[in-house]
Amino acid sequence: SIIAPLMDTGVVTVIKDRVEMLEPQGDQCSIITQSGETYIADDVLLAIGHQPTRQDAQMKKWTEFTQRNSNLVLHAGVYPVSELTLAANKNGHKHVAIRGYGLSMIDAARALGELHGSFEADVETGNYTYTPFETKLVMAPFSLDGMTMGPKPHTPRIDAQYAPPQSDLKILAKALSNEDSQKWATGCDWLIDRMVPTIAKVFESLKNPVSDRILSSTDYSKVLTNWLSDSDYSHESIMPNAVHPSVSLQSFIDMAMDTTPIYLDYCAGQVWRHCQMTIYASLSHSKLSDDVMADIITLDERLKRYSFGPPVASLKQLKALYNAGALNLDVLSDPDITCDKEGWTLKSAGAEFTATTMIDSVLDGPKLIEVISPLLASLLDKNFIQPVHDELGVQTDEFGYVLSERSSKAASIAILGRIAKGTVIGVDAILECFGERPKTWADKAVKNMSHQLSN
Length: 455
Prior knowledge:
- This protein is an alpha/beta fold.
- Helix content is about 40%, strand content about 15%.
- A hairpin with a 2-residue loop joins strand 1 and strand 2.
- The chain is globular.
- The mean pLDDT is about 85.
């Protein structure tokens, strides 16, 4: 709907090819594709998502092992899901382990579930039942912490109770945007201290919060500070970890449907989501040090367990798979894994599961120095781009243009999106795709072109 009219008027030309290299040459840039074609551009924007990175030791070992054992199948990624289900149909394996327990895992589990059975939704409750076909599928996801993602509230009405008033968001924005304060920040506690009052105020306003007793706002603030600083912190108002994952799954569903008391951590995650635009706008291109920005991004990533959670229907489908025996959650939390000619055997807390197919659903982080895609690797090798931090992405200016030892003397190359994480925060949020950053880049790009034309 956006690109078609631009193509019709000749403003946009779409070239279906894979770009493998950019070669800055003076004030222009050569774009070299996989097919061998070369294009010349005055201004280049890389709006790229997840990029392939070096395999970690575990995946490298498994890749080598499956190359020697043709009866085992290893999928290095989930997408495109169509290829995953096509392969599943061919190899006939019905015992599947899935590395990771996030959004991509849900996509994989749902796709395989629909291949080997059918979901049916109850019209009144919206709950699902899953009926397997003749051949029974069993999937076992696993992750380091075994934590379930919290779904978004089911309706706008339910979600509205987690939204801070605009007046509080303005106060928060002012506090986060204070450059003198940013310069003195030493860690993510700087952000925590400014977020806690907003979250505590919302939790106190809930009609049905979890609490065995009425706590003062000071007590809530202390619990929140401790939990945001330490994911292992426990309290009666924090959702318990020492329960079976199926219990956590149902608890999250009930909270999203607003049919049960609300835990403080679930509330915190939803409030954090409502504050994300304020956080991202205030902290991108800030005076925070690179190390503090890295700490804050780590905290924001951790809270995506709640703030980037799936629709509640997705968790209801997982629960349906579990109820039907198609989803094994017994080896979910950091299992011991052995691999032999029989497959991958996962062991955790006395439970055991052996799979002949392994799917890696863990998406690579935006760590520039680990990226192996030819496009970025060549720019990095030639110092046209550089990481803002060892654990993060490309350094850019306020308009999205790359910063490096050589970039100021080369053609205009800008980067928006996931791989720019570090200089900016929140780059992979859907709200950022239509926010100020693309507009800021576009305004600057037009000025660049106008300047080139005038010369």
